[in-house]
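Write out this protein's structure.
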Amino acid sequence: MSNCTLLSGFVAALLGYGSACSYIQFEKGPYVIRDSFVVYSAQEDVTFFAWQLRGDARNSAVSFELWQDGEYVAIDLQETAFAAAPYKCESSRWCYQYQVPGRHEIPQTVAPIRSVHDHEGVYRGPAALSFDTGETFSIRPIGLERNTAIDATRTDWFAENKVPMQRDFEWQITDFTAGDCSAVAPESWQTLGQRIELDHTWTQDDDGKCLAVRPRHRDSHGTIIYRRFLPSAETAWESQSYAPGREDSPNVYGILLDLEIPNAERCDQVKQWLSSNLDSELGKRGEVDFLGVYTRVSATTGQPLSGCEQAPFADYPVVQMVRDSLAVQTRYAPQPVRILWVYVNNIDAPPSDRIQTQIQQLLAAPDQEDGLNTYSWAIGSNSVLALAPWDATTGWRALSDRTFLADIRSFAQRTLPFVTMDHRADTEVSISAPEGRNPRFFKVCHATPWPIDAVGISPGSPPEYDRSSPHAPWPTGNLPFYTISPPEQFLLPAAEYVPRRVEIVLEVCERFCDNRFRDLQGNDHESWKNPTGSSAMEACQWQLQPQ
């Protein structure tokens, strides 16, 4: 009979169940040691032991023994250099620790720690993971918050290597004299936390100070390490904004009449209605400069027609219309102006090819005349509106149709005035110092929605520093500036113009600018003036928070 049959039969008989054979895996009891570590630190000349039990173990029912000199010896967890009561750690297990001075040799075949239960007896421990490290802890002090505090920046080998170990550390400040750190005062140790508050007067010492740190040892014999530290860069920052101005163009417009109205009285009524309403609605959007009403010119008499007759051999005075456009732009210079041409046609049929060519010549005039800007608006039937690439269109309706005037009013509201952003690529945007600060150097840490192009310290002169510069000196007697290149907005219809506001974060440094600093995200940098591994002028104590 197989062992499986014997075992399954025994279990079945014991529990009163039918016999069956299956794989049986026994779970380790709560008092069996798990994850045992042995770490020797050359820096402290101490061997550290760490191990774990399952979370349901009762600490009052178990003790531990350490392998020493060929045998297991009972140990007291409180009688050790860095004593710690059992504590819950990873996966809700119980964690334990013990230390002995010097290098404690353990044969590879021997478990360094074993557990002893009050009633169940000895549980042999597992082999340990062994480590030999030269340095168990270190510090690299750095000043915080304009040097009113420091962070020891303590590193811990146990935490970095995920070996459970609990102990406290102590600190004190000593002088740095004659190229060395002064000795500690035995009565001056204080518990080391995340930050150490200091009187700001310590920064008056040109040689800096020393930070002494040691682990809190039961007999006050913990290894002491000293590190000299200097004041960190003292900075201040603030947001500053710049809104490019907007320049509204005067509403300069001319009307091209191309109507077909045989009745002279009705013709005058329509022309009067158009002129009156166009002038009124366009005038509500700003200053108006009316070029006039342009009609076809008779080929036989050379006189302008009424505008209500589409004679086959009558042409528009395109050359004169272009001259009038250039003249009005010259009059307003250097203010930019865009000429609005309003073409009006009430016939549900396209004009002749001859007239279409003349309209296209008028609209194409900016391509031949430098500085001329035009905008075309057609009022007519669908066949007229489909002829040319008009900038805007409105359908012709009876004058009594209220929607006709409403559409004219809507066009004026959307389109006028034509707006230009008052900003050039060489515009110098002044930078002011944060209130109450006396800067020696500055950086433009952040700009939105566009990055800065360059910064300068001599107004009226080309910018001296581009974005790759690590910093710029604060000038004496004037304000520094920066330049940006926002997308151009030139003579845009009113509804298309987008007001812009540029926000920058300015940081100034007042003292210790060559020294280290910590940014707001907790990253330490070697020098505020000359950072490494960073994007030059954007490497500030202020830092953009990640989204």
